[in-house]
Amino acid sequence: MMLDSLPDKFKPESGLIDKAKELDRHYILIRYPNFHLEGTPMDHYTGDDALEVIRYAREVIVF
């Protein structure tokens, strides 16, 4: 992950790295629609899930 590989003086706090890792997990699941054995990606996510990862993405972008 790019954030984790930054030099120490530029590396973000661990909480932001964890949020970026969460974004990675969601990217893989929704990028490949056949990843889920049943249903589509939208069947496995809620509006709250989407709002949470949007907030995480904003924090990473601001950083």
Largest sheet: none
Structural class: mainly alpha
Task: Give the end-to-end Cα distance, rounded to a whole number of Å.
Answer: 15 Å
* Shape by Cα distribution: elongated
Question: Which range does the strand content fall in?
Answer: under 5%
Note poorly predicted spans. none
Mean pLDDT: 86
Q: Report the count of strand segments.
A: 0
* Rg over CA atoms: 14 Å
Order of helices and strands: HH
- Please, what is the oligomeric state? single chain
User: What is the tally of helical segments?
Assistant: 2
Number of domains: 1
Tell me the helix content.
Answer: 40-55%
Please outline the helices and strands.
Blueprint: H1 14-31, H2 47-62
Features:
elongated, 2 helices, 63 residues, mainly alpha
Task: Give a quick rundown of the structure.
With about 60 residues, the chain is an all-alpha fold.
Give an overview of the whole structure.
By secondary structure, this protein is an all-alpha fold. 54% of the residues lie in helices and 0% in strands. The protein has one domain (12-62). It has helices at 14-31, 47-62. The two termini are 15 Å apart. The chain is built from two helices and no strands.
